[in-house]
Amino acid sequence: DARVTQTPRHKVTEMGQEVTMRCQPILGHNTVFWYRQTMMQGLELLAYFRNRAPLDDSGMPKDRFSAEMPDATLATLKIQPSEPRDSAVYFCASGKGALNSNQPQHFGDGTRLSIL
Amino acid sequence: DQQVKQNSPSLSVQEGRISILNCDYTNSMFDYFLWYKKYPAEGPTFLISISSIKDKNEDGRFTVFLNKSAKHLSLHIVPSQPGDSAVYFCAASGSTNAGKSTFGDGTTLTVKP
User: Is B79 exposed, middle or buried (0-12, 13-18, 19+ CB in 10 A)?
Assistant: First the structure.
């Protein structure tokens, strides 16, 4: 089965450092989503792309977070500078379909981020 | 304001019995609902969905019921198995929001042998 691949799986770094998380969506999928899951909360949508164009990043702290899709096979989520409150599991998901299509999302296994 | 709510953080049932997980939503624009299952250290995986034109969808041991007037849906698992122990997320989307889903906080199901 095709899978969404996320790297790294784990990241521990010190406050103030730049963090880059990568995601390879499933080939042929045209939507990519970034979510954050903290201990006490569900899946919080940070940003999503359709056909590599950002559609909504309203859930993302703009001052330190940025999301890009340099090409159809790579999505990145960067945090600079990182803070302890950014510690969470970050999931990438991809899907396919037309603009008004309701299709399930396929998730990667996440990047567990710890900011010391 | 949380638009999708799963009010029970956890549920414990005996193997072979029915598990019922509940979800409420507030946005009347939602017209498609999904359930995902998540095991520890893995990403969520799609389980079953239902469109607002239906009130029931069944797939093997899993059935989702939708009550639009009450803005409520539920996932029934019969019979429950120990391998069903996981976190279950309810998600909702609207046909005008480009496939974006809003997730609940999840319910942890434990099925005891």
Answer: middle
Q: Chain A: nearest CA to B80, how far in angstroms? A: 24
The CA-atom distances, in angstroms, between A57 and each of A3, A54, A101, B100 are 24, 7, 20, 12
Tens digits of residue pLDDT in A9-55: 999 999 999 999 999 999 999 999 999 998 767 899 999 898 999 98
For residue B23, report the phi and psi dihedrals to the nearest 5 degrees: -150, 135
Under a CB-based contact definition with an 8 Å cutoff, are residues A48 and A55 in contact? yes
**Residue A55 to residue B98, Cβ atoms within 8 A:** yes
- Interface mutation vs chain A, best among B88, B103, B108, most A CBs within 10 Å: B103
Question: Are the CB atoms for A71 and A6 separated by under 8 Å?
Answer: no
Instruction: Read off the amino acid at residue B60.
Output: G
> Does residue B30 belong to the interface with chain A, where contact is any CB pair within 8 Å?
no
Amino acid present at A54? P
Predicted confidence (pLDDT) per residue in B42-94, tens digit = 999 999 999 999 999 999 999 999 999 999 999 999 999 999 999 999 999 88
Contact between A48 and A31 (Cβ < 8 Å): yes
- The set of residues, in sequence order, having a beta carbon less than 8 Å from that of A28 and lying 6+ positions away, is A96
